Amino acid sequence: MVHLKILMVGAGGIGGYYAAKLAEAGHEVTLTARGEHLNALKLNGLVVDYASRQTFRHSLPAYSHKELVDSCQARDFDVVIVSLKSTATKEVFAELAEWLQAAKTPVLSLQNGVDNEPLIAEIIGEERVIGGLAVRIGGHILKPGHVVAEGAAEIVMGAWPLKEMNDPRSQVVDQLSREFNAAGIPTGVSDNIRYELWRKLLINNGVNPLSALTRLDTRSLTHHPEFRHVVVGMMNETLDAAKADGVDLTREDLEEMFDLISSFNAIKTSMLVDREKGHPLELDSIAGAVLRRCESMGVEAPYTRLVCALLNHGL
């Protein structure tokens, strides 16, 4: 086993869980966070409750982004994993741009949406970007320093936007996959990660905005006699939008993703949790990504547009 030096940028519900699993396996993990969550991580360490069965406790180095830049260098790490809310990607990468550009460390994004990797590539170059997605996991910060998570918590990753012939990122991706699997994180590798990101957006756009609007969990939405049709409608609109990025999703993709989310645990989506806590919603990076691409092709997206309008008006 190789002991990796890992920076987790954004140690919230998803990042906190993966950080704890990787630390449990003996990897050197450093965290970034902000506010009271950061203060608690520094004082008491990271606590992660997983599926009401396991509790992980780790005292890990934790920094604000300014403290990170002042205390560490990007080349100190084997990989930078980004698990930020997509609403923060642009701001945080502007803060870390010079710091990241001074090294060649690969960056793995584990975020919602399909627009994070392009933003990261603008800062550090496409040749260092690894796209990724967290699948079948629900997680959020219960209180500062304390994260709860559930689900199979799988990861899919790959060179973004596609694996090229003799792609130098392949070696990094394969090593990360091996170490993640050895740490108990089921991880697969894709040669077409953009396709996988759009498949996940089928679920994200299908349930996240609607759950924030209705305040219903995923199981309630997908089993409701009326709302399930809205979920499928928003997934259909995502399927249409993918064509603008040259990704040909099929009806089989939609049905597979609907079956996945409808059979998964009844969870609050991250967007619903954010609304309950009064935090900014990832609406633009999920539904907005669909609307922008549909508009570019002259395709209507009435379900997504209506749910967005209702959320934007505070209903």
From TrEMBL:
It is an enzyme of class 1 (oxidoreductase). Residues 192-312 form the Ketopantoate reductase C-terminal domain. It comes from the Bacteria. One of its GO terms (molecular function) is 2-dehydropantoate 2-reductase activity. The keyword Transmembrane does not apply. Catalyzes the NADPH-dependent reduction of ketopantoate into pantoic acid. Belongs to the ketopantoate reductase family. This is 2-dehydropantoate 2-reductase. It comes from Marinobacter litoralis. The lineage of its organism: Bacteria, Pseudomonadati, Pseudomonadota, Gammaproteobacteria, Pseudomonadales.
